[in-house]
Amino acid sequence: MTLTPHQRTVLNYITEFQNKRSYSPSLADLAVAFGVRSKNSVAKVVNTLVHEKQIEKDPKGRIKIIAMAHFDDRPAPLTLPLFGPIAAGFAAAAEQDATEQIRLDQYLIKDRAATFLLRVKGDSMINAGIHEGDLVIVDRTFEPRPENIVVGIMDGEFTLKRLKKDKGKYYLKAENDEFPDLHALDELKVAGVVVGVIRKYH
User: Fold this and answer.
1) What is the pTM of this model?
2) CB within 10 Å: which end of the chain, N or C, has fewer?
3) Catalytic residue among 20, 24, 26, 124
4) Which residues fall within 8 angstroms of residue 139, CB to CB, at 6 or more apart?
5) What is the Cα–Cα distance from 144 to 163, expressed in whole angstroms?
6) Is 124 a catalytic residue?
7) 118 vs 15: CA distance, rounded Å
8) Phi (first) and psi of residue 102, to 5 degrees
9) Per-residue pLDDT for the chain (202 aa), expressed as one digit of tens each?
10) DSSP β-ladder status, 149-154 and 100-103
């Protein structure tokens, strides 16, 4: 069985948690990390990972420390040569040697266990350079501040907008004049801050 993206994300989070703290996260830790109210939903994912032999539990039902050798078959990190800078206006002299090597996961991601991707639908953020079909990189660890582009939870519904504050109250603003500002009737939460955008041209 191939793990779903969510199951893989949970597995990565458990691994990162163990590496940083030298002990395993509880179901309550996982529920908080993934923004769910019930521990039952994360328990189902954990049990699936146990069934698929991705993790093990001790006699008390706690997740065992994962041996790093278990991940020896993971793909090697993607590192590419960096050339430039390049002029976006007039042509510049060509450089033959790369200035450095960039490892893309380290460049784009601060905390892999707290980061996820979302595919953009609609054109409400086009003036911020975010188009339909783009992938946005979202980090849960950043404290949301006014002017950040965020994944907001507005009255229970997810939306990608810019966080604004006026007279002490937060609201969400589109980067497209055809869309109205969004003010919560009940509650506004932020699921994460957008830290990057990925677009594929071909």
Assistant:
1) 0.61
2) C
3) 124
4) 109, 110, 111, 114, 115, 192, 193, 195
5) 8
6) yes
7) 22
8) -110, 125
9) 578 888 888 998 898 888 877 788 899 889 888 888 788 888 999 999 999 889 998 888 889 887 654 444 555 567 777 776 666 666 555 555 556 777 787 788 888 778 888 999 999 999 999 999 999 999 988 999 999 999 998 877 889 999 999 988 999 999 999 999 999 887 888 989 999 999 999 8
10) unpaired
Rounded-to-10 torsion of CA 170, 171, 172, 176: -120
**Which residue type occupies 181?**
D
What is the number of residues in the chain?
202
Show the domains of the chain with their CATH numbers: 5-71 (1.10.10.10), 112-198 (2.10.109.10)
- Catalytic entry in 20, 41, 64, 161: 161
Cα Dmax for the chain: 67
Token pair of 193, please?
Answer: 């801050």
- Measure CA 44 to chain center: 22
User: What's the CA gap between 125 and 65, in Å, rounded?
Assistant: 42
